[in-house]
Amino acid sequence: MTQTCQNVRLVYAWVLGPMALFLTLSLAACGSGRESYLNGALKEATPQDVVERLGEPWKKKTSALRGESKWIYRYALTQDELDPTGVNKLGRSVFKATEGVTAMMGLGGGSGNPLDPGTKPHCYHYILTFDDTTRILQRWVREACADTDL
Q1: For residue 22, what pLDDT is reported?
Q2: Strands, DSSP E only, in 3-149?
Q3: N or C: which end of the chain has fewer CB within 10 A?
Q4: Residue 99 and residue 13: Cα distance in Å, rounded?
Q5: Angle at alpha carbon of residue 83, lines to 56 and 108, rounded to 5°
Q6: Which helix (H) or strand (E) holds 83?
């Protein structure tokens, strides 16, 4: 019984512990610095604070009826920003390798994977809403450029 407990402790110490640490760090790396900043800036940041951190917005809209201003930042996110852990990149590499092998064997291949985003840049808007009275960031959202109603 004591030997079994020692084995379990060794497995945890050498396998599960480092794996848990890796997963924790990987998940922490998933959020971009931009999004981390915006989450921390909610209900605190002024427009000047945001400009100092993110620069001037792509577009500004003011709604007198709602008493708020919307700022839109436009970013083309790279594949590395969308997949910081490299999981999708690994999947594409495996797909391309198997496609090449099947093509050499005369079993097709070369058709391309319709689900493979390749290296196409992805456009996103970060839409920030400021209260016109307090001049404080109230909320933000990230949307695909095609989904944004300008």
Answers
A1: 47
A2: 59-63, 68-77, 122-131, 137-144
A3: N
A4: 40
A5: 130
A6: none
Name 78's Cβ contacts closer than 8 Å, sequence gap at least 6: 121
Mean pLDDT for each consecutive 10-residue tract of the chain (150 residues)? 61 55 44 89 98 97 94 88 67 56 56 53 94 97 87
Residue type, 54: L
H and E: helices and strands count for the chain: 6, 4
What is d(CA 4, CA 7) in angstroms, rounded to the nearest whole number? 5
- Distant-in-sequence, close-in-space partners of 71: CB < 8 Å, separation ≥ 6: 47, 50, 57, 59, 60, 61, 127, 128, 130
- What confidence score (pLDDT) does residue 135 get? 97
Note the Cα 84 to chain centre separation in Å.
8
Residues whose CB is less than 8 angstroms from the CB of residue 108 and which lie 6 or more positions away in sequence, other chains included = 102
